[in-house]
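Q: Given only this backbone (280 positions), what sequence would you predict?
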């Protein structure tokens, strides 16, 4: 009778679980835009668990005013951290060829993406060595943070900010199928789609239209001055306003005029300090 090796049987399973744990080691601190309070930035620094030898990287490629954006967030973070802060304003070419900058991103403990235009950021980072470096940093335990455009890029399915139809740009006056333009983002969140400046700009039509098109995802609207903080499958809210979470719509119907209906979707609104499970 053949002898079965328990070690040989269990080893692949153990490796699989270790790999899964390693893949989710980092954290996300996703800010919905607007003014960032001192308390919010203090929470960002605390969440990042910075050691004395760690450093922080700011990526300003989304903004048209990189110097101002870098100076402002650097000053805020420096209130609560003595860690070194560096910034790299990558071009498309540098995102593949500037080895020193790419390695610095890969080894950072906190990576912060400024606001601006999420499409501009992804045009530089998508399919690049910098993209891989950011994911490697996340797998190794770094906190990835961003505000506004820097929040939108967190999702695999990224809202670009534009609509597919209607002559009036960015009005989003209806809830329709195939209405909201999306593209590929960073993919730190595979099953979640982020929208920002949410409550103050009443972006409900946009987010519910996205939910109809991507009903297997959870859509999350983060208001200004507020962050969704994600660690593995746990999420909590930090900041002054609210976060809206919607998923699992049933009985979807698409009418000839593009208007849609669905029933019994799960809708929750969370405020500072509240926690919930999130399949990310």
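A: Predicted residues:
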């Amino acid at each position: 009778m053949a002898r079965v090796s328990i070690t040989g049987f269990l080893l692949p399973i153990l490796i699989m679980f270790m790999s899964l744990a390693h893949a989710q080691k980092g954290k996300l601190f996703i800010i919905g835009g607007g003014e960032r309070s001192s308390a919010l930035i203090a929470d960002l620094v605390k969440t990042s668990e910075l050691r004395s030898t760690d450093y922080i990287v700011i990526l300003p490629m989304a903004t048209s005013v990189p110097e101002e954006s870098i100076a402002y967030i650097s000053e805020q973070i420096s209130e609560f951290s003595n860690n070194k802060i560096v910034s790299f304003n990558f071009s498309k070419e540098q995102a593949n060829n500037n080895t020193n900058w790419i390695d610095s991103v890969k080894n950072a403990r906190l990576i912060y993406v400024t606001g601006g235009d999420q499409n501009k950021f992804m045009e530089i980072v998508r399919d690049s060595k910098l993209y891989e470096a950011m994911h490697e940093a996340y797998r190794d335990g770094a906190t990835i943070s961003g505000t506004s455009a820097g929040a939108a890029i967190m999702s695999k399915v990224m809202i670009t900010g534009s609509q597919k139809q209607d002559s009036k740009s960015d009005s989003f006056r209806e809830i329709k199928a195939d209405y909201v333009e999306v593209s590929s983002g960073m993919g730190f969140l595979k099953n979640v789609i982020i929208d920002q400046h949410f409550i103050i700009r009443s972006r409900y039509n946009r987010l519910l239209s996205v939910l109809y098109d991507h009903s297997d995802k959870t859509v999350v609207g983060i208001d200004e001055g507020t962050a969704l903080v994600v660690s593995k499958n746990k999420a909590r809210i930090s900041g002054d306003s609210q976060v809206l979470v919607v998923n699992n719509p049933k009985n979807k119907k698409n009418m000839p005029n593009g208007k849609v209906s669905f029933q019994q979707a799960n809708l929750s609104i969370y405020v500072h300090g509240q926690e919930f499970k999130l399949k990310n």
